[in-house]
TrEMBL record, chain A:
GO terms for cellular component: plasma membrane. The lineage of its organism: Bacteria, Bacillati, Actinomycetota, Actinomycetes, Streptosporangiales. It comes from the Bacteria. The keyword Transmembrane applies. Pfam families: ABC2_membrane_2. It comes from Acrocarpospora macrocephala. The chain crosses the membrane at residues 16-37, 125-147, 159-180, 192-217, 241-259. Signal peptide: none annotated. One of its GO terms (molecular function) is ABC-type transporter activity. The keyword Ion transport does not apply. This is ABC transporter permease.
From TrEMBL, chain B:
One of its GO terms (molecular function) is ATP hydrolysis activity. One of its GO terms (cellular component) is plasma membrane. GO terms for biological process: response to antibiotic. This is ABC transporter. It holds the Pfam family ABC_tran. It comes from Acrocarpospora macrocephala. It is found in: Cell membrane. PANTHER family: ABC TRANSPORTER ATP-BINDING PROTEIN, ABC TRANSPORTER ATP-BINDING PROTEIN NATA. Residues 8-231 form the ABC transporter domain.
Length: 266, 309
């Protein structure tokens, strides 16, 4: 493994471990709740629908099928919370790759190593990708184990399909953060762009889907390519996922080219 | 390889940060085996020059080669050791582990070499980097700059934060590098820090290189205060109009003046009388340094472009 990839993994390690533990705890608690719901769906189903007003229900993906195994897993785990947690984690790593060490001056010695700028950026990205992949793999195994244990009744490959979607979403936003940071050297700006696109993108495909004036915006929302194919119900939406992966590749290329041309630490 | 090529060759090298001038029209050649002192106050363009040579920033216009290559070529950086002016080291990682990473990224440096340098500078590498004092950070910075025995060392304010004993050790390390025929560019805002190891010094001010001098020549130019005491009153005319003699005050049996450069003419004039006492202050290179600066300042004042710093 190149020295810079190993070093970058060491830098990201604490953050990755923290998020993995946090997401694991969240999933353990929330998937575990399904045991109760399964016992008395007639109580929890109407209760959930009654608890949330219309717009909030839309925001939670409808909650229509809340008491079925797939419906529960989609609404509680894969609709909003776990994607958002992973996106936050990935954006954190995306900023740690370039903009954060640049602002603190730590990047100065790294850019003066005999490593081309493009390669440097790709290795920082590669380490983040590996770290994110490890976090996703661990949480997938945990999600599958708990879901099996409480009898959610969703096959492993459907959970994998949803988890892969979460990974691609997180990777997209992490790479977006990296790209803005690599192009400008400003982590605050990078976080702001990623944050606005995340919140806006999610709103557009949920509460915005019935508002015709903005519904076309779903095409630029990464969430569209994750939620539209209903991976928990229908398995891998291959085409949509390829769109996410392709967009990520474009962002990565942009990041590399922008970083290669730029003055660092000015 | 080709020992005759200049280690640094800059032509019209210019960097503007927006409207602000970082460096303008730098023409400079640094030869193999020389220790070049790069002097100027903070914000004068020293760090801008250094970061241009390392391709951290890109010139607005002009060009530079380092070791005969374009600074953008990553291969050239393998042959350079660099100590940044504001070295940032942070986090829980131990200094030794970080040095190991830098060594590996540079294609491998024996651990024994790192340990030897750490011992020489009395650096404790088991401390997490975030907890290092300024002086210890600087030591870690020096270790990583020297460890791979680079052909060319670029040291930005290397002595800042070092205590005097470590400074001496550092200067010894620089002399060893020169004895190996390797090249050093070191910046400072204090001439005294570099004059004892430098072959030449360049003085940069407000983004412009205002002078490049051999240290030996600078010593010749040194402004020296001299006092001569005679056994009897001397005629002032005997000392008037001597080359290099200024601020002459002859009163009775004593003469005081300042001399630029060689004291030869003054000594020969004094030799005609009986000298009972001679006081000559050590040449203060700092003073010459300031002379260059004040000259530059006058010029700015004349064209009315002087800005408050």
């Amino acid at each position: 493994m190149p020295a810079l990839v190993a070093q970058s993994l060491r830098e990201y390690r604490r953050m990755l471990i923290g998020w993995t533990i946090g997401i694991s705890v969240f999933m353990s608690i929330y998937i575990g709740i399904y045991a109760n719901i399964k016992e008395s769906p007639e109580v929890y189903g109407p209760a959930a629908l009654a608890k949330y007003p219309g717009a909030l229900k839309d925001l939670m993906g409808g909650l229509a099928d809340f008491t079925s195994g797939p419906g529960f897993l989609q609404s509680v785990v894969y609709q909003l919370f776990v994607p958002m947690l992973f996106i936050a984690c990935a954006c954190g790593i995306g900023n740690r790759a370039i903009a954060q060490p640049e602002e603190s001056g730590l990047l100065e010695l790294t850019v003066t190593l005999p490593i081309e700028r493009v390669r440097l950026l790709l290795q920082r990205f590669g380490a983040g990708l590996l770290g994110l992949l490890a976090a996703v793999a661990l949480t997938y195994l945990l999600a599958w184990a708990i879901a099996t244990n409480v009898g959610v009744g969703v096959p492993a490959d459907r959970i994998l399909a949803a988890h892969t979607g979460v990974f691609l979403l997180a990777l997209f936003f992490g790479t977006l953060t990296l790209a803005v940071g690599a192009a400008t050297g400003r982590k605050g700006l990078a976080s702001a762009v990623a944050g606005v696109w995340t919140i806006g993108g999610y709103a557009v495909v949920t509460i915005g889907q019935n508002v015709s004036a903005i519904s076309w915006l779903k095409w630029v929302s990464p969430f569209h390519y994750y939620l539209e194919g209903k991976p928990i119900y229908q398995g891998f939406p291959v085409g949509d996922y390829l769109v996410l992966a392709g967009a990520t590749a474009v962002l990565l290329l942009t990041a590399a080219l922008a970083f290669d041309r730029r003055d660092v630490g000015v | 390889m080709n020992g005759m090529t200049a280690v640094v060759e800059a032509e019209g090298l210019t960097k503007f940060y927006g409207q602000r001038r970082g460096l303008e029209d730098l023409d400079l050649a640094i030869q193999p085996g020389e220790v070049f002192g790069y002097l100027g106050p903070n914000g004068s363009g020293k760090t801008t020059t250094i970061r241009l040579l390392l391709d951290v920033i890109r010139p607005t216009r002009g060009r530079a080669t380092v070791l005969g290559l374009d600074p953008g070529d990553a291969k050239v950086r393998a042959r350079i050791g660099y100590l940044p002016g504001e070295l940032a080291l942070a986090g829980r990682e131990r200094a030794g582990q970080y040095l190991r990473f830098l060594a590996d990224a540079r294609g491998g440096v024996a651990q024994a070499r790192i340990d030897e340098l750490a011992e020489r500078l009395e650096a404790d590498l088991s401390v997490p980097m975030g907890k290092l004092s300024k002086g210890n950070k600087q030591k870690v910075g020096l270790i990583q700059a020297f460890m791979h025995r680079p052909e060319f060392l670029i040291l930005d304010e290397p002595t800042s934060g070092l205590d005097p004993l470590v400074q001496q050790e550092f200067l010894a390390m620089v002399r060893e590098v020169r004895a190996d025929g390797r090249t050093v560019l070191m910046s400072s805002h204090v001439l005294a820090e570099v004059e004892h190891v430098s072959d030449r010094v360049g003085i940069v001010r407000s983004g412009r290189l205002v002078a490049v001098e051999e240290v030996a020549a600078l010593r010749e130019k040194a402004v020296r205060r001299v006092e001569l005491h005679f056994d009897a009153p001397v005629p002032p005319e005997a000392f008037e109009g001597l080359p290099g003699v200024r601020d002459l005050r002859a009163a009775g049996a004593s003469v005081t003046c300042t001399i630029d450069g060689r004291p030869d003419a003054l000594i020969k004039a004094a030799a005609r009388f009986t000298v009972v006492h001679l006081v000559s202050a050590e040449p203060d290179l700092e003073e010459i340094f300031l002379t260059y600066y004040s000259g530059e300042e006058d010029q700015h004042a004349r064209v009315g472009s002087a800005k408050p710093a």
